[in-house]
Amino acid sequence: MKKLSVSAKLYLVFALAFLVAEYSRGGDLAIFMAASKALWEGKDIYTTTYYAGFHYLYSPLFAVLIHPLTVLPIAVSGTIWKALSFLMIARAYWVMRRTFQLKEERIQLVLILSFLAVLLPIYSNTHLIQLSAFLLWAILESLDLIFRRNMKVAGAALLALVINIKLLPLAFLAYLIYRGEWRPVGFVFVFSIVFLLLPGLVIGSGYNMELHASWWRMIDPMKPINIIDLDEPGFHGITSWLSSLLTDKFGPHDLDLRRNIMALDDASVAVVINVVRGAVILSALWFLRTVPFKTPRYPFAQFYEVAAICLMIPLVFPHQQVYGFLFLLPATFYLVYFFFHARHGSQHRWKLTALIALGCISFFIVDLEILFGFARVELWHYKTLTYGVLLQFATLALCDPDRVQYPNVKTIELQRSEIDPS
Questions:
Q1: Dist CA 244 CA 333 (whole Å)
Q2: In this predicted structure, what is the pLDDT of residue 415?
Q3: DSSP H helical segments within 345-408, as ranges?
Q4: How many CB atoms lie within 10 A of CB 98?
Q5: pTM of the entire predicted model
Q6: Longest Cα pair distance anywhere in the chain, in angstroms?
Q7: What are the φ/ψ torsions at residue 399 (nearest 5 degrees)?
Q8: 73-78 own/partner pairs: CB under 8 Å, 24+ apart
Q9: Within 10 A of 13 (CB to CB), how many other CB atoms are there?
């Protein structure tokens, strides 16, 4: 049996301690369970509210799939979910190392530091029993199946499943189109139709279609409530950040402390938000670095692309809570790895030092709530997490993968051939 690494041992201790300490906490799983039960009662699970007025925001298929958990005590089902989340985070790290063929030099230190740099989203995801770990793992696993293992149907099915459950991974359907992966793209569409219709076999096709229509009305990104994104104090990302800066409005649970620099009308704010969203989405071209329908240049360059897209997702989608920023994990891992492995000339060492400083500041801001939990409400009020993510985004843009030294040219050519065997 292979001996566990230092990082694996530390992670295992952390996960076990967390599971014991939070055994009785049901988190948001209680909402999912209530919605799943309401599904079998024929209710509109999207207009119904649960517990303290919260809505269920995932797909009808997900409500069907989790129904077996409703027969278990919430403490047991919650512990199962949290344990699976820890396994998926570990698997996400493993897949990143394998898919993007990262060198093992200093990798244990890179793993530990990158984990600490996203400790707040990891904690929030498991504490609240949310789906971010599952979504991130499924995205990375599907890309590994498609690009490295040449199991394109399986990869497309997995990606279609997570798109069905929550629309955030749609960004990677666009990525597959850009990279000319037409066969997986076609299968994603086929499986998406299958997963859309599948709940109808259990709950009836008419009720299934009614639920999907109700779900879309709830998550429609152009709804005013999804533009002026201040409904809950813990929202972060571009929509809530710009809403807090450009209007004098407060959410129902916000502090009565000024944070705006302007007081624009809702229509003007909506224009600004969508322009900034569009700019962030278009900036993906900076990270892709090649013309459309070409394979990635080599694995580490593809890691750069995937990390950037993952980071963009919680920035541009509305209603993003802290746990949604677990999608920072690939970008954080990339940056820490880059800082240890980047080449630098004697005349330009200051540039790498400056990038390391920017990256560390962004990590610190992202984890502020862990360090200063007593000021959690104030940190939410001023959207500090979003500032950390924007700084990390800017730092990532400056960390060119070509500056990381691979052993030799033959290794790079081998890596390219493994991505595109043809």
A1: 30
A2: 44
A3: 349-366, 368-371, 376-381, 384-398
A4: 14
A5: 0.91
A6: 69
A7: -100, 80
A8: 74/26, 74/29, 74/30, 74/33, 75/23, 75/24, 75/25, 75/26, 77/29, 77/33, 78/23, 78/25, 78/26, 78/27, 78/29, 78/129
A9: 10
Give tens-digit pLDDT for 18-42: 999 998 888 889 999 999 999 999 9
CB-based contacts of 221: which residues, under 8 Å, 6+ apart? 317, 318
DSSP state of 232: S
Q: For residue 224, what pLDDT is reported?
A: 66
Rounded CA-CA distance 197/281 in Å is: 30
- Cβ density class 315-347: b for 16+ within 10 Å, e for less: bbbbbbbbbbbbbbbbbbbbbbbbbbbbeeeee
Measure the CA–CA gap between 190 and 184, rounded to whole angstroms: 10
CA 45 to chain CA centroid, nearest Å:
25
Please name the residue ranges forming H helices in 283-348.
284-288, 299-316, 329-341
Q: Please say whether the beta carbons of 230 and 380 come within 8 A.
A: no
What are the residue ranges in the chain where pLDDT is below 70? 1-2, 221-226, 229, 344-347, 405-422
